[in-house]
């Protein structure tokens, strides 16, 4: 999870005070890519392998 407080503490701990925005931009790119990847993976699983999802099994029976 990205939180401004965590970023500020991390920057202070490693001596990068004032560089919080750079760290946030760097982290945001990878977080958005990860969210998209997980969303695609979840959609694929739900469409092609629905029997591994407990609710889908209950609805089919």
Molecular structure report:
The protein has one domain (4-60). The chain contains 3 helices and no strands. It has helices at 4-14, 20-48, 54-60. The two termini are 37 Å apart.
Structural class label: mainly alpha
- Count of helical segments? 3
Relative helix content: over 70%
Mean pLDDT level: 84
Could you say which overall geometry the principal axes of the C-alpha atoms support?
Answer: elongated
Q: What does the oligomeric state look like here?
A: single chain
Number of structural domains:
1
Distance between the termini: 37 Å
The run of helices and strands is HHH
Over all CA atoms, what is the radius of gyration? 19 Å
Count the beta strands: 0
What proportion strand? Answer: under 5%
**pLDDT < 50 stretches:** none
Largest sheet geometry: none
Provide a concise account of the structure shown.
This protein has 61 residues and is mainly α.
Keywords:
61 residues, mainly alpha, 3 helices, transport, transmembrane
Reconstruct the topology from this structure.
Layout: H1 4-14, H2 20-48, H3 54-60
């Amino acid at each position: 999870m990205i939180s401004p407080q965590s970023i500020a503490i991390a920057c202070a701990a490693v001596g990068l005070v004032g560089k919080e925005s750079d760290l946030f931009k760097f982290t945001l790119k990878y977080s958005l890519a990860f969210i998209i990847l997980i969303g695609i993976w979840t959609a694929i699983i739900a469409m092609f392998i629905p029997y591994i999802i407990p609710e889908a099994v209950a609805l089919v029976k």
